[in-house]
């Protein structure tokens, strides 16, 4: 396993660094789970802490001048004065990770002046890393749109929009797993209105945009990162041909 010190002397682009960090953190998490020393919520805590220590250590070593925001580290105002800020989620979908499911992710993103410019999302349970610098043609869309929603608390707005457009509901775990389902051609729409934080979507949005998908707030406005308040109320990631219709249906709900 490559440790943070193993990055010393390496020259990587930001995208290469994001992908490498996400991949290695994913392998660490698989090993923590395979150790058999933790189960359930304890496994989630152990995974979060171990992956976070690696990611933060490596980023401070590799990009010491950049800002850093992680779900598992105490936030400071220092990042707000930085143009370049790394936003990471060591385990997106801690419940799914603790339950030994595959629909969880590792997020590593670089936001520049509030825009998610670089991102990598590892899906360790599927042995897959999706990157903003490696994009391909979107797979063919299904005849009837598939909408991914939370398997534990699907947003009522998403259910209403799915019904209005004749969509099929697909329940899934983490935000990263849902967003990457759209990138991977397993769904057409990911609509979330239940509130998230910047680390939940920064990397998935960077990857989605790089693959030609639509990503915005549910009112159509841009997603802006590295804010003092890291709460983000809503999110839409979808195939571009569905963006206008979904935004219109959401607007009807608010009318």
TrEMBL record:
Residues that span the membrane, as ranges: none
Keyword Magnesium (UniProt):
yes
Q: What Gene3D superfamilies does this protein's entry cite?
A: 3.40.190.80, Fructose-1,6-Bisphosphatase, subunit A, domain 1 (3.30.540.10)
Q: Name one Pfam family in it.
A: Inositol_P
Q: Which SUPFAM superfamilies match?
A: Carbohydrate phosphatase (SSF56655)
Residues involved in Mg(2+) binding: 71, 89, 92, 200
Identify which cofactors the protein needs according to its UniProt entry: Mg(2+)
Q: Which GO terms describe its biological process?
A: 3'-phosphoadenosine 5'-phosphosulfate metabolic process; sulfate assimilation
Q: Which CDD domains match?
A: CysQ (cd01638)
Q: Which UniProt keywords apply?
A: Magnesium, Metal-binding
A GO molecular function term, named singly, is:
metal ion binding
**Record carries keyword Kinase:** no
Name the InterPro entries on file. Answer: CysQ/Inositol_MonoPase, Inositol_monophosphatase-like
Q: What is this protein called?
A: 3'(2'),5'-bisphosphate nucleotidase CysQ
Task: State the species of origin.
Answer: Qipengyuania soli
